[in-house]
């Protein structure tokens, strides 16, 4: 519990920090432009064995939910593409070679997953390996909690 608390210390909470750029496939991405449901923001690194083990889970979640991943300090775009090809991963990736995006989100360890609801609020933070079922449950929870007025409830 103490390690987990240290790993999450400083992680983004409340309003999600800015996350915008060009995905490896050339598409523009801006989390602020999303309003149609929760999104999983997953930080990983090519040098992280746990991250590699979680690629399949992230790939599965991305088939059913909005997912954007951030390759943190994993080299240039060509290196990240080569890594993804070698692991048969096709999820959306923003490259973060300097770690600036990770710093903005308070990521101290990878893998780190954030569930951001449709109103741009960080609803869940998980550091370390998380199962696809755990991520799916959190996505469902972030997308279904609403107040009696129809507005989403934030934590």
Number of domains: 1
Compressed to H and E, one letter per element, the order equals HEEEEHEHEHEEH
Cα-to-Cα separation, first versus last residue:
21 Å
The helical percent reads: 25-40%
Number of helices: 5
**Structural class determined from secondary elements:** alpha/beta
**Would you count the extended β strands for me?**
8
CATH class: Alpha Beta
CATH homolog superfamily: Glutaredoxin
The shape is globular
Strand content: 15-25%
What Rg, in angstroms, do the CA atoms define?
15 Å
CATH architecture term: 3-Layer(aba) Sandwich
Average pLDDT number = 88
Q: Which regions have little confidence, pLDDT < 50, spanning 5+ residues? A: 146-155
Find the CATH topology: Glutaredoxin
Main sheet record: 6 strands, mixed
**Largest beta sheet: strand ordering:** 1-8-7-4-5-6
Report on the structure:
This protein is 33% helix and 24% strand. It has 155 residues and is an alpha/beta fold. The strands form 2 sheets. It has a 6-stranded mixed sheet with strand order 1-8-7-4-5-6. Strands 2-3 form a two-stranded antiparallel sheet. Mean pLDDT is 88; it is low at 146-155.
